Amino acid sequence: MSEPIHVAVLMGGWSNERPVSLMSGNGVADALESQGYKVSRVDMDRNVAQVLAGLRPDVVFNALHGVPGEDGTVQGMLDLMQIPYTHSGMVTSVIAIDKELTKQRLVPHGIPMPKGTIVESESLYTADPLPRPYVLKPVNEGSSVGVAIVKADGNYGNPIARDAVGPWQEFDTLLAEPFIKGRELTVAVLGEKPLCVTELKPKSGFYDFDAKYTDGLTEHVCPAQIPQDIADYMIELAQRAHELLGCKGASRTDFRWDDELGRDGVFVLETNTQPGMTPLSLVPEQARQMGISYEQLVDILVKEALA
User: Of all helices (H) and strands (E), which one includes residue 92?
Assistant: First the structure.
């Protein structure tokens, strides 16, 4: 009888998204074990290369979120070690986590994205970089970490006060984009196949880190109750973004849609190359909608990595 495939599930790490990664990783590991895979759970620390060299897995399931699991660092290490891994490769990861590089890759190919400008955080204390309302976000963090919406009547001050809590206190430079009013939607792509459109309706505020990962804070409408032509357009854009960026495994492209403008109100915000795999996560939910169980989903990702 042949040996079972040995999968090292890489999770945890030291990014802001560590708790989410641990939830994703343990969910993946349970699902793989239930299908007869040999699984090693690896909570990533600085000795991760040594740990993996000792384990000698057939494949790594990358369940890390944020830096360094999503920015090409881990991908480059695994390439050097010649261990196959799930999700996107090094170059794609470097580009997709950087919102400016993503725009440079996608916009020339007709992907609509908000026009943005990189600003020094220090400059925000003297003047607004854009007319209000506008959005400030770190250039290379995921999961809505450190996103602020600056409104005319907001509580950050005008100009922004130094003691106002926001991403300007954590990051030296930020991306400023016009705020697109309307609805928050997302489309997952698995392999080369887009799944469906989900609308995200936070119970209060906007779809930030807490709204993403706290049960009950956001209603997921899957499939989204939107006109078919808009859904088809988003699905087409998500698939094109996946291909243009060179994504592998699963990706998830996030949108804002100003429904008063129809198709002209659709904007891609970003493509996530390491979408969450927690019970609340959007890719497993969309896969279920398309008749793919969580167990089948992780099996597909592992088999694609080994292929």
Answer: helix 90-97
List residues with catalytic annotation: 17, 143, 213, 252, 254, 270, 272, 276
Q: Could you tell me if 283 and 297 are in contact, meaning their C-beta atoms sit under 8 angstroms apart?
A: yes
Going 219 to 293 to 302 to 197, the CA torsion angle's sign is negative
Q: Set out the domains of the chain in order of their start, with CATH numbers.
A: 6-86 (3.40.50.20), 96-112+181-306 (3.30.470.20), 117-178 (3.30.1490)
Contact 205, 184 (CB under 8 A): no
Tens digit of each residue's pLDDT (9 = 90 or more) over 12-47 = 999 888 999 999 999 999 999 999 999 999 999 999
What DSSP letter does each residue of 113-169 carry, written as one string?
----EEEEGGGGGT--SSSSSEEEE-TT--TTTT-EEE-TT-SSTTTT-TTS-SGGG
Task: Let me know if 294 is exposed, middle or buried by CB neighbors in 10 A (0-12, 13-18, 19+).
Answer: buried
Do 79 and 89 meet the contact criterion of CB atoms below 8 Å apart?
yes
Q: Are 100 and 115 in contact (CB under 8 A)?
A: no
Res 140: pLDDT: 76
Rounded CA-CA distance 167/237 in Å is 29
pLDDT computed for residue 210 by the predictor: 46
What residues are paired with 183 via a beta bridge? Answer: 257
HSE, CB side, 13 Å, CA atoms: give it for residue 260: 3
Is residue 254 within 8 Å of 186, Cβ to Cβ?
yes
What CA–CA distance (Å, rounded) separates 97 from 295? Answer: 27
Q: Alpha helices, DSSP H only, in 16-87?
A: 18-33, 48-55, 73-81
